[in-house]
Amino acid sequence: MRIAVTAMTDEGLAAPVAQHFGHAPYFVVLDVDAAEVSSVESLANPFLEGHQPGQIPQFISEQRAEVMLSGGMGGRAIQFFEQFGIAAATGAAGTVAQAVTDYLDGRVLGAKPCADSEAHGHG
Q1: Is this structure's pTM higher than 0.85?
Q2: Over the chain, what HEC string results?
């Protein structure tokens, strides 16, 4: 399984999870086989300075991710991930390693638009 996680730094598994998907400075993309991490790559967000709707989900899709974990995400981003066949999950916290463990253990599942997204009509 290939998982992407929003991150505040480029420290791989030790990076803190970014709480706002669209403003995440980095994405950590990792491969998990039988609950063991087999590869880790930190990628700078190429759209950090500004993006059009769908650009970041497309970028994550190009990395062949099957799952996208983040602290929070807007409703439109969730819809784009659905269109790309990527399972989005919000509510991730702690380090990237902790977020992946929480996801694999079933403690982080599903995606709900963040409050800011709802307030701005992006739900």
Answers
A1: yes
A2: CEEEEEECCCCHHHCEECCCHHHCCEEEEEEEECCEEEEEEEEECCCCCCCCCCHHHHHHHHCCCCEEEECCCCHHHHHHHHHHCCEEEECCCCEHHHHHHHHHCCCCCCCCCCHHHHHCCCC
Cβ(17)–Cβ(99) below 8 Å? yes
How many CA within 13 A on the CB side of residue 50? Answer: 0
- Both tokens of 96, joined, read 């990237």
Which residue bears the tokens 């989005």?
A: 88
pLDDT in tens, 40-54: 999 999 999 876 788
Summarised one tens digit per residue, pLDDT across range 95-112 is 999 999 999 999 998 888
